Amino acid sequence: MKTILYATDYSYNSIAALQFAHSLSNKLKGNLIVLHVFDLSVTIASTVSLSYSRKEIKAFKEHKSRLYSFCEEHLGVEPDNSNITLKIIEGTPASEAIINNANEFKVDLIVVGKKGESAIKEALLGSTTSALIEKANCPVLAISEDTTNNKIKTIVYATAFEEADLLAIAEIVGIAEQSKASINVVHISTKEEYSGEEQMEWFKEMLQQKINYDKLNFELRFSEDVFSALNQYVDEINPDLLVMLERQGHSLIKSIWHRDIVKRMMTESKFPLMTFHKKNLKNKSFVS
């Protein structure tokens, strides 16, 4: 992951995400794009008026200055003298503007905060994050406002024993290697699921064949309440990063892992949550 895009609304709740994104980009020796998306109220007539053009130019200058100050204050570095690129975009919805920029710069990871500065902005941020998870062509990392530890020593990956999980874990190893972090692979099995123990052994064998990393741990738990059991396990491990796979067509698939567990973890878990979308892993392959 060489290029990370962090999107902000300047809120206090997004500061931790900025600091996490900056720390991660430094560890990976990569580049960090800091993006703010703003929206000017427009009409068909106003878009061709001179006054609108002046307002737009003024808004870009003001936001560029504010974004620079935001980074300087909360990172303690001058963006001009670091690996940071500032980007101001006018557009709506915000998720579409973020995704367009992520595609333009071939971003490897999008980082956002979990909450906005107000109830309205929090709702908008929630919908923006959901849209990013569904539509972005790269993983999305959401950071809680109270996240203070930027060191990644322990990672939890929640698996459903799919090939896409193997590919996602292979991507995560690139992050884990930088700090020799452990990757704890967990699966919650229900009575409806066939032979959880055998599936875990198969998955473990496949993973160890394809990935050369000696800090992989495996945990199988049984519960009819997958979300609660996963939440309990995560609280016990207290990871620096939780990783999950968003799957397509969840309403048509019987597996309990295809319900809205990712979205619940996004809103209810305090831990940094990175999500891969299954559709983005289709063309990935293991490096031999």
Concise overview:
With 288 residues, the chain is α/β, with parallel strands linked by helices. The chain has 8 helices and 10 strands.
Based on secondary structure, the structural category is alpha/beta
Quickly count the domains: 2
Which percent band covers the strand fraction? 15-25%
Major β-sheet strand ordering = 3-2-1-4-5-10-9-6-7-8
Termini gap: 19 Å
CATH-defined architecture of the largest domain: 3-Layer(aba) Sandwich
Could you characterize the architecture of this molecule?
The chain has a 10-stranded mixed beta sheet, with helices on both faces. With 288 residues, it is of the alpha/beta class. 41% of the residues lie in helices and 21% in strands. The chain starts with a strand and ends in an 11-residue tail after the last strand. Helix 3 (94-104) packs across helix 4 (119-135). The chain has 2 domains: 3-143, Rossmann fold (3-Layer(aba) Sandwich); 154-281, Rossmann fold. Strand 1 (3-7), helix 1 (15-27) and strand 2 (31-38) form a beta-alpha-beta unit. Mean pLDDT is 85; it is low at 116-125 and 250-254.
